[in-house]
Write a structure and sequence with these properties.
By secondary structure, the chain is α+β, with helices and mostly antiparallel strands. It has 4 helices and 7 strands.
Length: 153
């Protein structure tokens, strides 16, 4: 059974392994990305892990979008490569959506790369009923577009 909970600093090494298994971005960014969550009591950042038998197999990070009412941005979701395609990602997305509804969240935005190696990521958001809202050409670098999805909660 999948257990979803907020991360602790003790989880970071295992979560880096989750991120490394996907090879989509460098896991060494995790320490800096999560530091505000651990050090700032008023931080609005939310970090979750999903575990199987007390072993973290996924990580998710989202926060409110500034200057909006009830709009959140999912900055990271990663499932360990060995556990992809088993419905865990969808379960985590459902958990996040329910969590945000309880905070009076209205909209969840997700964005990803337009590169071919991110095709499965884009299909995942399609399967989770997110609408493709925009493509910003060459956003990340030359020939790498940003694809933006959204869902009304």
């Amino acid at each position: 059974m999948l257990k979803i909970r907020k991360i602790t600093q003790n989880d970071l090494q295992k979560l880096k392994e989750v991120i490394d298994s996907n090879e989509l971005f460098p896991s060494d960014l995790l320490d800096e990305m999560s530091s505000d969550f651990f050090t700032n009591e008023s931080s609005l950042d939310v970090w979750f892990t999903a575990e199987l038998q007390d072993n973290p197999i996924a990580v998710a990070y989202f926060a409110p979008e500034r200057m909006t009412v009830g709009t959140y941005n999912l900055y990271l979701i990663a499932i360990h490569k060995e556990f992809q395609g088993k419905g865990y990602g969808k379960e985590i997305m459902n958990f996040i959506e329910q969590y945000l509804k309880e905070l009076n969240g209205r909209i969840l935005i997700v964005e990803t790369s337009g590169l071919p190696e991110f095709e499965l990521t884009r299909k995942f958001y399609d399967k989770c009923n997110y609408e493709r809202a925009a493509v910003i050409k060459e956003f990340y670098q030359e020939r790498e577009d940003k694809v933006i999805f959204w869902k009304k909660l």
